[in-house]
Amino acid sequence: MRTDSDTWDLASSVGATATMVAAQRALAASASLIDDPFAAPLVRAVGYDVYTRLVDGQIPVTGDSEFDPDRMARGMAVRTRFYDRFFVEATESGIRQAVIVAAGLDARAYRLPWPAGTVVYEVDMPEVIDFKTSTLAKLGAEPTAERRTVAVDLRDDWPAALRAAGFDTDAAAAWSAEGLVVYLPPDAQDALFDNITALSAAGSRLACEFVPDTTIFADERWRAHHERMSGLGFDIDFNELVYHFERSHIVEYLTRHRWQVSHCTVAQLHAANGFVYPDDDVAAAFADVTYLSAVLGG
Ligand code: SAM
């Protein structure tokens, strides 16, 4: 269970979820659905056995198993393409600073075609940031933008740390908070968006997901699925990692704070990518997960 000052690395607690999604990106990359050559080596370097075996294709798919690597790959491809497109379009509009909040093992600073002069800030816990920096250096990877790391707990004064790293509050920025907000308590979620708004010049952009009801992780449909996946070694229990208290509706919250928000559900995003959204209990429980992007008005 979470505490106010808990910490982690990439194989424990919330940090392990970064390894999990990177493993899913590796599956999507190996199916040629996205371009991320760094996901698999990063996952192998973490050394969390089940995810290493997942990226290496060593987990057998049995007849009655719910484990479906193709489904994982499509689900993560949809998400990765959404954020990739968000950043590419932001830079096409002239934005030259990006902030990847809760960057985890996201390698966008090393793989997107950032225009010359773009600065990409990556914010996450110190152990997560340090691991990615050193592992990608050992792999010989070079950032495709000026990458600046901000190693800080988002429950602390991260805006001060971001400013100290050179963030320019007078220039528009593109912000992502991918796979993050459910791991923040409701007041920290509001504070996150308050801080982003306060740091953002007009024309800044923001992308994130919204899980309207985190009790789905305690829902019988998800618990039954989790039990079956645990049998294969996928033992991360989201129910213990997310905060279930009632939280602000992100679309409404941002709209009240001068953001013009566009949004679509994960099911709609599958359709937009030419994928059929799965038709079962677990998919139904998550069907209203929402992807949103927003532009800050003047
Ligand atoms: N955005 C990355 C991606 O999609 O690959 C990582 C997503 S992972 C599911 C969640 C990330 O949130 C982890 O990297 C974790 O360290 C980060 N995170 C959660 N709470 C945090 C906090 N209080 N401070 C800093 N990072 C946090």
Automatic annotation (TrEMBL):
Pfam families documented for this protein: LCM (PF04072)
GO biological-process terms attached to the record: methylation
InterPro entries found in the cross-reference section: Ppm1/Ppm2/Tcmp (IPR007213), SAM-dependent_MTases_sf (IPR029063), SAM_mthyl_Trfase_ML2640-like (IPR011610)
EC number: 2.1.1.-
Gene3D superfamilies from the UniProt entry: Vaccinia Virus protein VP39
Taxonomic superkingdom: Bacteria
Keywords of this entry: Methyltransferase, S-adenosyl-L-methionine, Transferase
GO molecular function: methyltransferase activity
Role, per record: Exhibits S-adenosyl-L-methionine-dependent methyltransferase activity.
Entry's family note: Belongs to the UPF0677 family.
Alphabetized PANTHER family for the sequence: S-ADENOSYL-L-METHIONINE-DEPENDENT METHYLTRANSFERASE YKTD-RELATED, S-ADENOSYL-L-METHIONINE-DEPENDENT METHYLTRANSFERASES SUPERFAMILY PROTEIN
The protein's name: S-adenosyl-L-methionine-dependent methyltransferase
Organism: Mycobacterium celatum
